[in-house]
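Researcher: For the annotation table, I need structure tokens for DUF676 domain-containing protein. Please keep the output clean. Sequence:
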Amino acid sequence: MRVLKAHTLPSLSLYGDRISNIDSTTTKEDLASHFLSKGLLFSQGERAVLFTSTDGAHKLAMVSFRDHDHFKRALTLPISDRMVEGRVLNIDEDFDGLTVLSEGTQVEIVALHGLNGHAFRSWEFPDTGFMWLRDHLPEQVPTARIMLYGYNANVIGDVSTGRLRTFAETFLERLRYVREKSSQRPLILLAHSMGGLVVKQALLTANTRADGQFNSILNSVRGVVFVGTPHRGGNGVDGAKFVANFVRAFNVDVRYDLIKSLDPGSMVLFDLTDDFRQLIAAKGIEIATLFETKKTRFVSKFLFGSSIWIVEEQSAILGATGERKVSINADHANLCKFSHAADSSLAATVQVVKEFCKDCVPTITALDHTTQPPPPEGLKYVCLSDPDKLDDSTRYPVLILGKYEYWALSHIDNRYAMTVLAYDDQKDIAGRWTKTGARYVHHIEYDEGNRQVRFVGQASHAITFGVAELKVTKSARFG
């Protein structure tokens, strides 16, 4: 796939559509000429059409039309007027499902919007048209494939258990399809507000599926960035009132008495947190939380002109071990959008994402094993300077993955096996894995395409791990 570099990307105006099923040979000029023949004009300039991804015989584009009239007319074109190079163009403004913004190959980032949101515009600053996930993040993490996920969550019933599960299962199905050729690639989920509830439910659903259909997704998730997600109610605010304020923050008018009359058991804002905390601890999933520091001013008829906290810090904090917490100088609705690339809040947000991405890509170095703690019983540090000679070297090959160092130790009885130990920054053992077939490590190899690590030892024999196998989890401590 080919995408434009981030610095060449245009701003998508309010009159933007997504066009798919475009033939791979179709150019920007071809597309503009076709719509011009139908009396429809794109915005001024060369950047009104952005091809965001190609996949074999077809590609997708985001376009901005000259004005609202042209924008709406494009959406109602009959099939006969949407034929280009023998293909019927699909034109939509909803951005439902997954939309690819950049095509890195080492890690995947998926962004989910919140209640009454839009896959693209929820992340776009309306006054400047700056959309940081497209206009800034790709150049900051060029190794990432960045995708938007859109879903229709616009009514109060959408915070009920049934609807949330439906959103979650649909998200998993669509993500599994898109990741069919990259199922082992590490995954970072970025979720604003209610999007965080969808993420929590999706991972819990994946974990409980008896057929293991979504195991590749669950096992690939390295981190979740929650942006103003309500994990529990506000201080001193009963559940129904909290939900009402939460929904109204997105200009969805709803009466408090109607929410209060709903079955309390159907409300899920506060039901997922404990199970989710246990899941991420078991799977070794990192968590970062971004929370608002400004009250939200209402424009709805029920609370017009008033300003209140929607998701206070104590509600936004999941309470996970090692959770990273970042305050953002914005109200709830604007937590996920920034006016320009130099915004300090954007810098803090991007830094969190970059750290997660860095944690996903292994690096290989050499360290002095004499500074390491004594090996566990039955193991010893042995590394060879030459795979064909028994000459010990103090420069020990070490794999760095996230916050852990991975050392391949041999066995005292000299069997053909190695035990890989993951040490944390306190030099404590966080994970342990043993495989037979090689001894006395000489060097480490990383196969990026297959996401595999080879610990190569004497006579070039090796043991191989998928990177996902080396994920530090509770069970890995006893491997």
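Researcher: And a one-line annotation?
Model: Residues 209 and 215 are 8 Å apart (CA to CA).
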